[in-house]
Write a structure and sequence with these properties.
The complex is a heterodimer of chains A (110) and B (113).
Chain A (H helix, E strand, L loop, with lengths): L2 E3 L4 E5 L4 E3 L2 E3 L6 E6 L5 E7 L5 E3 L5 E5 L4 E6 L9 E6 L5 E2 L3 E6 L1
Parallel strand pairs in A: 2-12
Antiparallel strand pairs in A: 1-4, 3-9, 5-6, 5-10, 7-8, 8-9, 10-11, 10-12
Chain B lengths: L4 E3 L2 E4 L5 E6 L6 E7 L5 E8 L2 E4 L8 E4 L6 E5 L8 E8 L7 E2 L3 E5 L1
Parallel strand pairs in B: 2-11
Antiparallel strand pairs in B: 1-3, 3-8, 4-5, 4-9, 5-6, 7-8, 9-10, 9-11
Classes of the chains: A mainly beta (110), B mainly beta (113).
Chain lengths: 110, 113
């Protein structure tokens, strides 16, 4: 069975500081991994995805994620956060139907 | 190219009524997925459809819920005899094939009073 764990429910970070959101997955084969961002009352926007190849994936809005098979992880990073990055972030795994983590809410303080 | 369109955005139903949620996939996408998001939770898969076929409904409650994606027109998620526990955000996503990234709509927020 496929599943995703996002250990951090809420993270607060200062504007300009670096951000790392953790994601651990369980999947029987080569995983298809995604990070989505959701603003309040809105749908989900894809930040980046990993299907195969280079384990460091670049996405939109300056985000990147690194796939580590040995750790079953797909952590999301951003070197310098902006106030507009305050949102909820979801990690997902799946080839057809996606399994989502519970999400991490990011608060950015000035 | 318009994105995934869902309507209505907000729906209020009294207990026992029926709720119909509509989803028009992105142009060129023949795969449609429905997910439900309960408050403070991530999205949970409900059903995967292609035109005129239900491919995987393993996440659908056994009773009161049904989905279709007809040859013409949008995909419909139908909830009969709604109960308070059905209150949630329902998201539709579409993709051109599998595996592929899924594009999500804005969601329909159902409130049962």
């Amino acid at each position: 069975a496929q599943s995703v764990t996002q250990p951090d429910i809420h993270i607060t970070v200062s504007e300009g500081a670096s951000l790392e959101l953790r994601c651990n997955y369980s999947y029987g084969a080569t995983p298809y991994l995604f990070w989505y961002v959701q603003s309040p009352g809105q749908g989900l926007q894809l930040l980046l995805k990993y299907f195969s190849g280079d384990t460091l994936v670049q996405g939109i809005k300056g985000f990147e994620a690194e796939f580590k098979r040995s750790q079953s992880s797909f952590n999301l990073r951003k070197p310098s956060v902006h106030w507009s990055d305050a949102d909820e972030y979801f990690c997902a795994v799946g080839e057809v139907k996606l399994s989502f983590g519970a999400g991490t809410t990011v608060t950015v303080r000035a | 190219n318009a994105g995934v369109m869902q309507n209505p955005r907000h729906l209020v139903r009294r207990r026992g009524q029926e709720a119909r949620l509509r989803c028009s996939p992105m142009k060129g996408h023949s795969h449609v997925y429905w997910y439900r998001q309960l408050p403070e939770e991530g999205l949970k898969f409900m059903v995967y459809l292609q035109k005129e076929n239900i491919i995987d409904e393993s996440g659908m409650p056994k009773e009161r819920f049904s989905a279709e994606f007809p040859k013409e027109g949008p995909s419909i998620l139908r909830i009969q005899q709604v109960v308070r526990g059905d209150s949630a955000a329902y998201f539709c996503a579409s993709s051109p094939g599998t595996p592929s990234e899924a594009f999500f709509g804005q969601g329909t927020r159902l409130t049962v009073v």
